[in-house]
Amino acid sequence: MEMFMTPEFWVAVGQIIMIDILLGGDNAVVIALACRKLPPAQRTQGILWGTAGAIALRVILIFFALTLLAIPFLKLVGAILLLWIGVKLLAPEHDDAHGNIAGSDKLWGAVKTVIVADLVMSVDNVIAIAGAAQGAGDSHQMPLVIFGLLVSIPIIVWGSQLVIKLMDRFPMIITAGGMLLGWIAGTMAVSDPALANTAAWTWVPKVPQTDVIKYAAGVLGALLVLVIGKWVAARHARNKHEEPAVTTG
């Protein structure tokens, strides 16, 4: 129980909940599409079982991600992926990824659709949550992940429409979320075993594992996402305005 008393635990929980809200907004859409053909009496069951299966699968994936992040250089790769995810959050491509999700009139068919679709769409979520859990200490990582996901379930399932409206009204929420991913990427990169372990990989330059270095790397990652994301968004807007008009002869 002592882990609930540490500020690092609650900071990481807050990060996981925000990541799930920002990157898990599509989950509610997937659930709605997969369960739309179910009889009304089974629709709630489909939503609950599909969500439970998707969350359980995500916990398993995050467990493996946390294990893999102990391998040298993989945190650096994960940090690069998180920076890319953060930039995409600030400058999204407007592709409809839900067109191929078919509904089912059978309860377990709908549940299977939810779980499979969530598996395909959860790569960014898993990497980000694994990175956020790194800051809570090795012994607290999996309890933290499970606690954070459980807290975020009702937010995703029942509060997703409210969250989406808030994001539309206050775009700063999305900007803050992208910068949070950049912060996690920066702190993850400097804690990579290849950079932190002075007894191994001696040919790799080492980074002092101090709070100043960690926070500086987090700030740098957040600023990188902000600057690159705004630049990409501006470029998308400029290209859209410069598209030649179609003329008819």
TrEMBL record:
Intracellular or extracellular location(s): Membrane
Family: Belongs to the TerC family.
Keywords from the named record: Membrane, Transmembrane, Transmembrane helix
InterPro entries in UniProt: Integral_membrane_TerC, Integral_membrane_YjbE
Classification lineage: Bacteria, Pseudomonadati, Pseudomonadota, Betaproteobacteria, Burkholderiales
Pfam family, one: TerC
GO cellular component entries: membrane
The protein, known as: TerC family protein
Bilayer-spanning residue ranges: 12-35, 47-67, 144-164, 171-192, 212-233
Membrane topology type: Multi-pass membrane protein
